Amino acid sequence: MAFTPKIEALICTYCTYTAADMAGAARMQYPATVRIVKYLCTGRIDILHILKAFEAGADAVMVSGCEVGDCHFLEGNLRAQERVEYTKHLLDEIGIGGERLEMFHIGASDAPQWAEAVRQMTERVQALGPNPLTVKRRSEVQVEEKS
Amino acid sequence: MIIAERKPFDEIKQMIKDYPKVLIVGCGTCVAVCLAGGEKEVGILAAELRMALELEGKKIEIGETTVERQCDREFLEAIASQVEQYDAVISMACGVGVQFLAEMYPEKPVFPAVNTTFLGANEDIGFYTERCSACSTCYLALTGGICPVTMCSKGLLNGPCGGPVNGMCEVDRTRPCAWCQIYERLKQQGRLDLLKGVVPAREFKTKPAQFIHPAYKKKFERPQ
Ligand code: SF4
Ligand code: SF4
């Protein structure tokens, strides 16, 4: 059976959060796999916030801001995009895997796109399996229990 | 300020592989501005190391702390009780900070996490350019505020060489010739006569420099 991933979504209040809110109000169905953290702008999202999420056991992190050219603060989403790309590289080096992190651009009125992004990310993580740290931690607990 | 770059992750991981308890010490001044070794970068490196080593099945405890400046004893003294609890220390400061930390705690292995790169300007967040080589004989008064030692590929004091083409350097054709820029700047200011003089060869350092402020001579000057 496919596991239910835990995905942390770091999203901006002006665009993607509004879309997510609208998806909820319109009762659009999508997997209950995301935990949302609302930012004023994706430009505030730091590499460290993403790494901490994985360290705490998130199976994936999605960052989502306004569409390119639409950022409320002009270029916060572009800054986030670059930071996400760099953090993917860090995740590869660590051994977690950069493909567990993705950036999306979802405008305030694009509720269906939000639902679709969550579906996509959920499927991707289901194919990848749980965060390797979680796997490691579980196997250690099992070893301790046996001994 | 001093510009540094974070070392590759694998290099850092390799340095500390034999130590179960490692303290990462950041520096809150130059290297924090250039995003190489401030409090945030300490957090990033610590998270990277914790996760990577946990995946490799290694037990490691990583401490994090950041001082205002690692090139100042009073700030390094303040972390003595923390350093004591760890087997090794990673310094994220420039080479000065790393050496000062290592000197202060000689019983602990101290490892550098950044490559100290140059003295430069903060052009924008994430973008820094070199400006000075700390040559100890500043020539900027003669050169219209453009450093010949640093900005000229050959460090010529009496340039240009025979190589510039259309104002570009012969060593790297994509870069402007510093001496052409010096000429243009002095021309703009009506000070081209400065170029008629010959600047004598500068003294090259053969030992590490030290400097005592004139108001502190009695305190620090020891008979050699
Ligand atoms: S001449 Fe250049 S290298 Fe020497 S002190 Fe002046 S700016 Fe620095
Ligand atoms: S071309 Fe200009 S900058 Fe390049 S080496 Fe010659 S004098 Fe220096």
What does this structure look like?
Chain A has a single domain, classed as Rossmann fold, CATH 3.40.50. Chain A is globular. Chain A is an alpha/beta fold and 147 residues long. Chain A has a four-stranded parallel beta sheet with strand order 2-1-3-4, with helices on both faces. Helices cover 48% and strands 16% of the residues of chain A. With 224 residues, chain B is α/β, with parallel strands linked by helices. The mean pLDDT of chain B is 96. At the A-B interface, helix 2, helix 3 and helix 5 of A face helix 3 of B. The complex binds iron/sulfur cluster (2 copies).
Brief characterization of the structure:
Chain A has 147 residues and is of the alpha/beta class. Helix content of chain A is 48%, strand content 16%.
Mean pLDDT rating of chain A: 96
**Helix percentage of chain B:** 25-40%
| Overall number of structural domains of chain B | 2
**How many helical stretches of chain A?**
5
Shape of chain A: globular
Percentage beta strand of chain B:
15-25%
The percent range for helix content of chain A is 40-55%
For the record, give the distance between the C-alpha atoms at the N and C termini of chain A, rounded to a whole number: 29 Å
Shape of chain B: elongated
**Biggest sheet layout of chain B:** 4 strands, parallel
**Number of helix segments of chain B?**
9
CATH topology heading of chain A: Rossmann fold
N-to-C order of helices and strands of chain A? EHEHEHEHH
The CATH C-level class name of the largest domain in chain B: Alpha Beta
Architecture of chain A, CATH level 2? 3-Layer(aba) Sandwich
Number of separate structural domains of chain A: 1
Give the averaged pLDDT of chain B, no decimals.
96
Instruction: Give, in spatial order, the strands making up the sheet with the most strands of chain A.
Output: 2-1-3-4
Comma- or semicolon-separated keywords:
heterodimer; A: about 150 residues; alpha/beta; four-stranded parallel sheet; 5 helices; about 50% helix; about 15% strand; B: about 220 residues; Rossmann fold; 2 domains; three-stranded antiparallel sheet; 7 strands
